[in-house]
Write a structure and sequence with these properties.
With 298 residues, the chain is of the alpha+beta class. It contains 9 helices and 14 strands. The two termini are 32 Å apart.
């Protein structure tokens, strides 16, 4: 998962900069935009922040954006989560092929080693939408997303994730990760992100996992120690992911009797205080749309 904390080394890019809405910023990687439309070495590509259609020409772009915004720029798909100022929409790649293909082409400019961008039919997309002030020319803007295979034999709850560079370092990635684990819970499947993770993706997930695990451990009452398996069940996380995070936290202790590991609650509590960890879940379960929750339970 890309992060604004450290911009990756730039590969040979076919697009050097993008204008998303009214923000200009550099790309990180090449994408699969058609050469006949974009070229091999484009200095600036204009991308609509509502539908992700693209052009090299400023005048057609401005005309398109005006028309798109006039149509209330409501995202496709269905609303599944709403907590001001953010919303999450679920989009079926089969039903919205053009939108999801254009979104994927844009995302590839900031994602390395992700090549499944044309088989959008096999994925659902979860886009993060931010409300804008009344004075803005648009009522909302898409600031990130994650994709998820409709059928994953490995129980992956997330295929790729991206918060667009101008909105990184605001904790928005944690919202997307939180929703992906809520999907695991609703599907009654222990899951995790597709492996291998990039270096930046691993850093982002470790922070998320550590806070999630600490919150779960400290929420368990009447126990001074907790097993790895109990943590995995409580967090809807894979045991391997739990172990990776606990090792990073230096929290694993061998059981006094039998094989395996346990974690001491007091040690976790002190770790959270020392590292100033925000234990508040990034996603409020009460803010999921009731109709969507009923459809997941059906």
């Amino acid at each position: 998962m890309p992060s604004a904390a450290a911009t990756p080394l730039k590969a040979a890019r076919n697009v050097l900069n993008v204008v998303l809405g009214d923000i200009l910023f550099p790309t990180w990687y090449p994408s699969f935009y058609p050469e006949e439309l974009v070229g091999k070495d484009t200095d600036r590509l204009y991308v609509c922040q509502s539908c992700f259609k693209y052009t090299k020409e400023a005048v057609p772009f401005l005309a398109h954006v005006e028309a798109c915004n006039a149509d209330d720029n409501k995202p496709p798909g269905r609303l599944i989560y709403r907590k001001e100022p953010y919303s999450i929409y679920e989009i079926d790649g089969e039903e919205e092929k053009l939108f999801t293909q254009n979104l994927s082409l844009f995302a590839k400019l900031f994602l390395d080693n992700k090549s499944v961008f044309f088989d959008v039919s096999s994925f659902n997309y979860y886009i993060l939408v931010q409300d804008l002030p009344p004075s803005s020319s648009s009522s909302r803007e898409i600031v990130g997303f994650f994709s998820k295979e409709k059928m994953s034999w490995d129980n992956n709850n997330l295929a790729c994730i991206l918060v667009f560079p101008p909105w990184q370092r605001q904790g928005l990635g944690k919202i997307l990760m939180g929703v992906s684990y809520e999907l695991s819970k609703r599907e009654n499947r222990i899951g995790g992100p597709e492996k291998p993770l990039s270096e930046l993706g691993r850093k982002g997930y470790l922070k998320f996992w550590e806070a999630r695990i600490a919150n779960a451990i400290l929420s368990i009452r009447n126990k001074s120690t907790v097993t790895v398996e109990e943590i995995a069940s409580q967090c809807w996380m894979l045991v391997d992911d739990v172990i990776v995070a606990l090792k990073e936290m230096a929290m694993l202790e061998a059981r006094k009797k039998g094989a395996g590991f346990v974690v001491a609650k007091d040690k976790v509590r002190n770790w959270a205080i020392l590292n100033n960890i925000d234990l508040k879940p990034p996603v409020d379960e009460s803010c999921f749309v009731e109709e969507w929750m009923q459809s997941m339970a059906a």
